[in-house]
Write a structure and sequence with these properties.
The structure is a homodimer. Helices cover about 45% and strands about 15% of the residues of chain A. The first copy, chain A, contains nine helices and nine strands. In chain A, the strands form two sheets. The first copy, chain A, has a six-stranded parallel β-sheet, sandwiched between helices. In chain A, strands 1-3-2 form a three-stranded antiparallel β-sheet. In chain A, a hairpin with a 3-residue loop joins strand 2 and strand 3. In chain A, helix 2 packs across helix 3. The longest helix of chain A has 19 residues. Chain A starts with 8 loop residues before the first helix and ends in a 7-residue tail after the last helix. Chain A binds a DNA duplex (24 and 24 nucleotides) through helix 3 and strand 2.
Chain lengths: ~210, ~210
DNA sequence: TAGATTGTTAATCGATTAACAATC
DNA sequence: TAGATTGTTAATCGATTAACAATC
């Protein structure tokens, strides 16, 4: 089956997980893997894994399974991690600071080109130059930016989101604990730490609710 | 309908969102809200909201809707944010640092009591005391800890997880980009930043895949 | 070839939505 | 009372799992 559009969100959310496991299998030098083996290490069913992958193509071979390296490469193309991405970071508080320093993303080809906050500040040995948020619209006019990261306080995030959308970013990675609205088809992905902690809290208080 | 166990994960994951919106409605001084109004601001259907809430009780009133303050209080009890939580942070890298400084959680009653990392270090004006990870098992023996936060490099996270589980934490909030396994019924909640960024990347490259 | 495992269809299961009687 | 809106059941929709023919 060829590439199929309209893949459901549930499937899409599992792709990074497949990629991650394949990477680690590949790192261990393993060459082939079956959906059954993948099932055992991911905890998903073999059936689901095969069906998920078949939304994008026939990557396996009957009687053999999947070539690890090959499937990994296909997934990297499907997800888009085979490309490089230019990012700007808006909000240099605690989270923003951590994201800026986080090496793994840079290694994967995601690079933060500029950092914006309320107060401009020169670069020093620890931190990058902080550009005044007022200059963000101009920056976006003059530089193609793929992803805007929002790590501002929640009161500012919708406004920043608007600026980023008007500046034609392709996607927004939002860390502020509110639901913001994008326009011009800008893709939004939220990391709601508060919701995550609350979900954890819920289960801590309701151990009987495990119905997995 | 009374409290109903075996609520599905989808429902549970929406509770923090309800709480967040109710909080903001309450802050604006609004006293009553209908499922229809909640539907408009959350983007969920009124039917779903009513059904979700009815897993836990009958909090509304026909012809009126819900009392904002009352529903908020109920939700805070359901989620468990009405209580205080003692946490330890393991791994004082970029993310760990950010989480330590993040004020919002403290205000909500989540407090980081101790920080562990490979190298012990005295407290200074910016940072807390860092205790050697070797002392973590003893610490857990002598202090009740509700939640362990893992923000170590991925190679260390399963080991840290084991120590936390043996030390009888109730839940683990994992920021390392691997799937770890808990034991002794310890609840696990992952924040997989890499997966989140990859999902964003996917949609950036497949704008046609919006089927919401 | 025989064994293994895929790709894909059909069956099942669960979650969401629609509808409406109950009732404030 | 009349209007509004809940709680709850029934209908629909979608996602997961099971099964198996195809085939390496």
């Amino acid at each position: 089956m060829a590439k199929d559009n309209g893949v459901s969100l549930s499937v899409i959310k599992r792709l990074p997980k497949y990629y991650r496991y394949l990477e680690s299998i590949n790192d261990r030098g393993i060459v082939r893997v079956s959906s059954k083996e993948l099932s055992e290490i991911t905890g998903l069913t073999a059936s689901q894994i095969r069906q998920d992958l078949n939304h994008y193509g026939c990557f396996g071979q009957q009687g053999y399974g999947y070539n690890v390296r090959e499937l990994m490469d296909e997934l990297s193309k499907i997800i888009g991690v085979d490309k490089k991405y230019k990012m700007v970071l808006v909000g240099f508080g605690n989270i923003g600071h951590a994201l800026y320093k986080y090496k793994s993303f840079q290694d994967l080809g995601y690079h933060i080109d500029a950092v914006f906050d309320l107060e401009a500040r020169e670069a020093n040995e620890n931190d990058p130059e902080i550009v005044s948020i007022e200059k963000l619209p101009d920056y976006l006019k003059n530089n193609k930016v793929d992803i805007g990261i929002i790590s501002t306080p929640k009161d500012a995030s919708q406004e920043v989101c608007d600026i980023l959308c008007d500046g034609n970013v392709d996607g927004i990675w939002n860390f502020s604990p509110v639901d913001i609205k994008t326009k011009n088809d800008v893709v939004l992905e939220n990391v709601h730490l508060d919701e995550s902690l609350f979900t954890l809290t819920y289960f801590i208080n309701s151990p009987e609710d495990f119905n997995f």
